[in-house]
Amino acid sequence: MFEEKIVRSLYKKNIEFLNSRGVEKNNNFYIFFKSIIDSTHILIKIAYKILIFFLIFFFFINKILFISKKLEFNLFGYLINFLNKIYFFKEILKLIKTYSIIYFYD
Amino acid sequence: MTNFINSDEIICEYLIIGSGAGGSVACKHLIDQGKNVLLIEEGNHYKINEFNGSISKSFLYAWRNSGVTPVLSKSSYGIGEGKCLGGGTYINGGLIWRTPEIVLEKWNKTLSTNKFSANNVKKYFLEIEKNLNLDINDDQKYPEGNDSVKLSEIGKKFNIDVSKVPKSINSTEKLNKLTLGSPGETANSILQRYIYPCMKKDLKILTNCRAEKLVATGSKITSVEAMLDNKRVNIKADKVILACGATQTPTLIKNSFGSKFLNSKIDVHLNLRIGVKFIDKIKVNNGIMFTRQIQEYLNDGVLIMPTSFNKNSFFSGLAKMNNQDLSQIEEKIDNYANFVIQIQSQNKVNLYNFNKNLFLTYKLSSNDLLKIKKYFIFFCNALFETGAEEIILPLKKNYLINREENYIDFIENNFTPKNLEMISVHATSSAKMGLKKTNQEIFNIDGKSFDFENLFCVDSSILPTSTIESPQATIMMMSKIIVEQI
Which DSSP string corresponds to B200-225? Predict the structure, then answer.
């Protein structure tokens, strides 16, 4: 449940401001991206699992603290910007953004 | 494609493992000779235009590892390979360059032969060019892409060689919108011209069939263990021809005979992409794709060319940018073009196998870094002189430069191994031919194994060095030479 929410949130963040055609395919991106991860290289799989584990912890804390959805998305944005400064997370987040863009424009 | 299988043991005269440029040519030659041939391919069969221009679907289904195999390196670096019927030629083929003479001379010298002289290989290229319906003369109905026109301008202004590109991509209908140079959308691909005609004759094909291990008894390969749709099968063949590509051929050999048998090092071209914003609208989508290439620096192992332009391929290379900047680029997309500087790397990619997983490592040499800097300084200057306003460099940080900036200092300071972003699609020479058996050269100059009398290799891994140019035609030529002698 959390994983799907995380991937959807990442996709939403990755295509923010690009929505010039008014097209949103948020619902299906998770299915597409899960298929990508299933057939990708083991190193990318490991990096993805660590990222998801970290972000599940974030969403779990939010649930406990009853944080509103809007605030949660904003906090998620700050957290992703922070993780982008850490080399390990930066590469996997860039890869997810690349797939988001490719999927969005297809 | 499996209706001829009755048990978990298959017997054939010739077994070809892999269906890319090398495997397809070997198939056609043997089938034309009336031989009994079985072709196995790890990926699936996708028809011409199966993905209808969708990059996300082609990444998911037709590329190995969903598009990119990561290479452990200080730089951000990955290798792209095909995993489908047609192999790499289905996803990223179509430029049919003859092997440069400087490369052939090097091969002949290293291998003490005249076998690969330009004169001797000419007839093979003529046949390939005819079969693939090579097109070098532009269709008069459509204009050249303005990205190629810019290269022509650079050629005239700096008095350098800008050549027309010989390609088997029928791009006139889709102009500059083909996805990643994919001939999988075209009618004159390997699939159409080599594999389908063989299927009409008597070629047997197993797709979704991965060769796991070569089983040897003495000096002969007696069978090949493979997984067909998750079911183990045993294939017995009189002759086994490896054509799985530069990462999979050495992987199969290492899985079969151990890591000490082959110390695989892959030759690569480093592709560095450059996004360029021009002052005027250039609308590259309205012209025919990559018709020109800067060839002046071929002897230095460097090529400069435009690359296919559509929003998703262009923006996918810009994932490092924030979304507001991407949005601004989107608004001015008609002013942008995409180019690639391709450099023959001095250092090689190391290939390791661990628990059946493939790991690649690479270290950029200081000579290659100097070369990259030198040609970026040249090309940035040339672009600014021909109307570029802003350039997006293949760097993780500090990637934007404009015409007012001191780009020489900028490139000197920011082009570091840690800051570079690169990709390779032309991996070669990972199990190469040589004069005698070493732990890197395991096939002789006829493509035959030094250790096993019925094992041959016809893919890019056997090439003595990388080709500087796109290697498709070279692999096809080499495959034909080898298979003629089997």
Answer: HTT-EEESSEEEEEEEEETTEEEEEE
